[in-house]
User: Fold this.
Amino acid sequence: MKCFVHQDADAVGTCRACNKGICPACVKDLGHSICCNHGPCETKARTLDSQVAQSGVVLAAQRRNRFLAPLFFIMAGALFIAFSGGGKGSWFGFGHAFGLGFIVFGIILGAASHRYAKELERKG
Ligand SMILES: [Zn+2]
Ligand SMILES: [Zn+2]
Assistant:
């Protein structure tokens, strides 16, 4: 492959933005990608790269938070049960039912997100 600008020069790679061949004289190193060092390609390539980086961050955060939400509901439910008792006559009160509901919801949420994550991993 030859450089898009210099037809006699061998290209060292392709531009991240316009996918044309670029030679060492035309290349602009962006860290983990390269683009033409002229025209609007640098801005476009940087935007593309930052979008990729952002989606990576979002994915990592989703993976990290997978068990946080279910855990929160289970903890909240446990706290509800712990503080709703305390000798007010009825052992199983509204607080207990509410807390149990939270815990069940947390478990279902955890199972659902676990299955969803498994499906994502299978798809790659
Ligand atoms: Zn380009
Ligand atoms: Zn060139």
About this structure: DSSP finds three helices and four strands in the chain.
